Amino acid sequence: MVFRKNLPAHADTPERLHRNGHSATMANRSDEPAYRKIQNAIRRRIDSGQLKPGNVVPSERELARIHGVSLMTARHALTELARDGIVERRHGAGTFVAPPKVQFNKLLGYTEQMASLGLTARSRIVSSSVVTREHEIAARLGLPPTARLGRLERVRLAGDEAVALEVCYWSADEYPALQHAPMDRTSLFSVLERDCGVQLAYADEEIDATDADQRMADLLSLPKGTPLLRIRQLIFSSTARATVFVTGFYRSGRHTLRIRRFR
Amino acid sequence: MVFRKNLPAHADTPERLHRNGHSATMANRSDEPAYRKIQNAIRRRIDSGQLKPGNVVPSERELARIHGVSLMTARHALTELARDGIVERRHGAGTFVAPPKVQFNKLLGYTEQMASLGLTARSRIVSSSVVTREHEIAARLGLPPTARLGRLERVRLAGDEAVALEVCYWSADEYPALQHAPMDRTSLFSVLERDCGVQLAYADEEIDATDADQRMADLLSLPKGTPLLRIRQLIFSSTARATVFVTGFYRSGRHTLRIRRFR
DNA sequence: AAGTGGTCTAGACCACGGC
DNA sequence: CCGTGGTCTAGACCACTTC
């Protein structure tokens, strides 16, 4: 409930009546701050296509009038939207819907990458187990040396062609659900985020080149010695906890990593 | 000159005298906004080591008092510093100096990378020329197909060991200075930024794995067929102009690319 | 309880952009 | 010229943390 508060010192004039007496009657809908309501109103108009990139957004003064708030509050709403890249402000001209941003260096699972290319991810499970002697990987995950780790080894397919071998490790005690999910059809990311209540946030990756040993060569149907891109990623949750460790071997020519780096 | 302005409506009380009459006497130093002065004052105290990470920064009310500004102005100063990651705000507790941020995915030249590891970069120039028939690379740089391109091929050394082969291309007409700089001792980045007045901003990179052909094997003193990490980068200026195209072949085990990706 | 940041008011003057 | 965003005032009440 937002009752009327905010009566500055100089409101000791009789005009304080302008706060109409809807206090108990209309539900003022949650304790959402006014500036956030304004933001949401604008976001909705953008999402619905009513406001397109380049279109002008109502000015500070207009928003203040429409929503019945002070200039500073309307201003705060627009300033934050600009900081988040939703709108662009041009001094003396106005506030405009920003062109949609392409996200760089975005952390995606294989399933999501394929989906973003309009393809369906398929996998073949090579092995699925619980291991206890992976000291180094346990250490990377911030677990004791002999922690029980879930381990999943999958061959990634594009069409009928094997393009990658991925091995994942996670704490078997914290995420038992992963052990029994149908991982040949399901995304590891989606199980974690939907079923385990983990919000993934970022991954630190080490990238180098190696070549296929006999086992990899067999699994990927390649000659032994073929160069492979190796990506080791340690994936962190939004609470900065190391959650999954993945090592992937990607067939050259079938997989190029694209990143953008900033100065 | 900032004279006293900002006399809101309710300042018709006698208290407006509190603006002490220094108007013409002390030089108010530039037209820098008050909130920026506050920010600079705090930044200086952090840079000089007087304020260390975790230390508390003066509160909004304190800053307002010290600098003789209103609460909203002091608040604005801190809010922006927090947005830039300089300080962290904790509701009910205070504002604190943020721990120094490690920069991820930072675009660095080889010379700079070595410097950041406390090492000195060395290179051996393999060839330096101007070419006119690299249609594909010219296209990447946004130039006509037969544009004159500067081309520089260098072997990168760590100690006495060859760790990488890098080939750079740029517009020979726009940056003639690059052709005659002592590139065995100098950074391409520093020549561009210092001598050519170009501010580099970001690079789009394509990363995959390949293996050494006979020529690379000879130049890097490796067996033919050794897996190499290939990084092709198109480097853009702050005006979003493609400026340099670099292809690098990095010896595995001697070079691991580290990046962070966000969800 | 004291102090902090978070939200908000009802205005002010200025610098800038486009007509 | 008029409308826009940028800076700023002198306060207010609230939610939160710390003691």
Structural commentary:
Two copies of one chain form a homodimer. The first copy, chain A, is of the alpha+beta class and 263 residues long. Chain A has two domains: 84 residues, Winged helix-like DNA-binding domain superfamily/Winged helix DNA-binding domain (Arc Repressor Mutant, subunit A, Orthogonal Bundle); 155 residues, Chorismate lyase (3-Layer(aba) Sandwich). Chain A is built from eight helices and ten strands. The first copy, chain A, has a six-stranded antiparallel sheet. A three-stranded antiparallel sheet of chain A has the order 1-3-2, with helices on one face. In chain A, a hairpin with a 3-residue loop joins strand 2 and strand 3. In chain A, helix 1 packs across helix 3 and helix 2 packs across helix 3. The N terminus of chain A is likely disordered. Chains A and B meet through strand 7, strand 8 and strand 10 of A and strand 7, strand 8 and strand 10 of B. Strand 7 of chain A pairs antiparallel with strand 10 of chain B, so a sheet runs across the interface. Chain B binds a DNA duplex (19 and 19 nucleotides) through helix 3.
